[in-house]
């Protein structure tokens, strides 16, 4: 991987934010946003004294508004900072709050960068213990810019156990290494599907691809999330599984991962 940058710019913490966890993936559609949302809720559920925020920098395809059942424009504080929108106890900010719902973001790099700058620097988070950042998929400008501008506690990389997704997850992990962001581990998503009728288990995308990649990279697998209809339905209806069905096995998988992070 080549990183087109002249040295690392100086990182400046986000005011009031103690720890930043970024959730990344090599490919789109592997469950990165679903993981980011449920991880944020799981961090809050595991320790109710902690204040959690969720920042969606997936500029071209923001999913957080729908998954967290939020819409509208952020209000401005007295110092002209955007106030996050709140649901299920999580403070959220997303590109989706700044553009119309069905309006595509057709922007060149410079405009995207200025939006990222706004999302990183012009939000009044108050005091947060953890800010979970939903990155765009891949290893482009936005990922680099976020990694180089704010101190990041660690990155988690989401992948399905499929070769094509793992190859890109590998690149993602290498990118974080190059910019000195610690990779906390991999999350293997959609690893097993259990038929709700006969209980037979099928590894639709392969069984343990992320485990093998983790071994190759010397990383941990933080957990496995099954492919489950309830996870998809919960996200689509804006009632994420960790919030709406905290006692389910699927929610428990996220809750266990939050302990590892
Ligand atoms: P990404 O952020 O990687 O593009 P999303 O989180 O948007 O991926 O997930 C893509 C789709 O897959 C969504 O419809 C989501 O609800 C669904 N999905 C994600 N993880 C699971 C899972 N473990 N089981 C069932 N559906 C899932």
What tags apply to this protein structure?
8-stranded mixed beta sheet; binds adenosine-5'-diphosphate; about 260 residues; Rossmann fold
Tell me the CATH topology. Answer: Rossmann fold
Beta-strand fraction estimate? 15-25%
Order of helices and strands: EHEHEEHEHEHEEEHEHHH
Number of domains: 1
Biggest sheet descriptor? 8 strands, mixed
GO molecular function, one term: metal ion binding
Subcellular location: Mitochondrion
Protein name: Iron-sulfur cluster transfer protein NUBPL
Family: Belongs to the Mrp/NBP35 ATP-binding proteins family.
Present the secondary structure layout:
Layout: E1 17-25, H1 32-46, E2 52-56, H2 64-67, E3 85-87, E4 90-94, H3 109-121, E5 128-134, H4 141-149, E6 154-159, H5 163-178, E7 183-189, E8 193-194, E9 201-202, H6 209-217, E10 221-225, H7 229-236, H8 241-244, H9 249-260
Parallel strand pairs: 1-5, 1-6, 2-4, 2-5, 6-7, 7-10
Antiparallel strand pairs: 3-4, 8-9
Bound molecules: adenosine-5'-diphosphate.
Residues 25, 28-34, 63, 189-190, 225, 227-228, 231-232, 235-236 line the site of adenosine-5'-diphosphate.
């Amino acid at each position: 991987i080549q990183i087109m940058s002249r040295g690392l710019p100086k990182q400046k913490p986000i005011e009031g934010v103690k720890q930043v966890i970024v959730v990344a993936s090599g490919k789109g559609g592997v469950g990165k946003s679903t993981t980011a949302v449920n991880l944020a809720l799981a961090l809050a559920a595991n320790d109710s004294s902690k204040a959690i925020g969720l920042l969606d920098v997936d500029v071209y395809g923001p999913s957080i508004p729908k998954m967290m059942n939020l819409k509208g424009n952020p209000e401005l504080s007295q110092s002209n900072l955007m106030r996050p929108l709140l649901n299920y106890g999580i403070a959220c900010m997303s590109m989706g709050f700044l553009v119309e719902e069905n309006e595509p973001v057709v922007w060149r790099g410079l405009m995207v960068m200025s939006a990222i700058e706004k999302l990183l620097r012009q939000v009044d988070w108050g005091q947060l213990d953890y800010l979970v950042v939903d990155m765009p998929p891949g290893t482009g400008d936005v990922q680099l810019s976020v990694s180089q501008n704010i101190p990041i506690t660690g990155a988690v990389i989401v992948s399905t156990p499929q070769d094509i997704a793992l190859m890109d997850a590998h690149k993602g992990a290498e990118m974080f290494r190059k910019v000195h962001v610690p990779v906390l581990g991999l999350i293997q998503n959609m690893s097993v599907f259990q038929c709700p009728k006969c209980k037979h288990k099928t590894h639709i995308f392969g069984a343990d691809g992320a485990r093998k990649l983790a071994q190759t990279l010397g990383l941990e697998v933080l957990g496995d999330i099954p492919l489950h209809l309830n996870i998809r339905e919960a996200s689509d209806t804006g009632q994420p599984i960790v919030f709406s069905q905290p006692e389910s096995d699927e929610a428990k998988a996220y809750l266990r991962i939050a302990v590892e992070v």
